[in-house]
């Protein structure tokens, strides 16, 4: 089964305003809600594709992130996150994760709100649906 990579914040989930205060962002994580049209799209895609969530969120919020996703989704998925100590730009983290995923997955396309991430996916030869 082919795969689709989907971003979380600003794409599937409202908000992408990380700012400089990660503690505050994580503290209010469960207040965020899904972007309904994107949630519907991903639900449809899950019927024919493996859904792989690749997020810039750190591992420290894996439990909360899975609570969110499991509350909204009715299909299995994979979730990849940055390590707790990784402060690289979003696109660098996602590039490394995506390159590793490409070894075992045929990735049809990605869905992301960050123009830098979209450009990175393009550089890897993966089409990207740019959400804004």
Provide an overview of this structure.
There is one protein chain. With 132 residues, the chain is α/β, with parallel strands linked by helices. It has a single domain, classed as HAD superfamily/HAD-like (Rossmann fold), CATH 3.40.50. The chain has five helices and five strands. It has helices at 22-27, 36-45, 62-72, 90-101, 115-123; strands spanning 3-6, 50-58, 78-82, 107-112, 128-130. It has a five-stranded parallel β-sheet with strand order 3-2-1-4-5, with helices on one face. β4, α5 (115-123) and β5 (128-130) form a beta-alpha-beta unit. It is globular and about 35 Å long. The N and C termini lie far apart (28 Å). 28% of the residues are buried. The model has no long low-confidence stretch (mean pLDDT 92).
The total domain count is 1
CATH class: Alpha Beta
- The fold-level CATH name is Rossmann fold
Rg calculated over all Cα atoms: 14 Å
Count of alpha and pi helical runs: 5
Q: In total, how many beta strands? A: 5
Distance between the termini: 28 Å
Which range does the strand content fall in?
Answer: 15-25%
Which stretches are low in confidence, meaning pLDDT under 50 for 5 or more residues running?
none
Largest sheet: 5 strands, parallel
Q: What share of the residues lie within helices?
A: 25-40%
Shape: globular
CATH architecture verdict: 3-Layer(aba) Sandwich
Widest β-sheet, arrangement of strands: 3-2-1-4-5
Please identify which CATH superfamily we are dealing with: HAD superfamily/HAD-like
Give me the strand/helix succession: EHHEHEHEHE
Mean pLDDT: 92
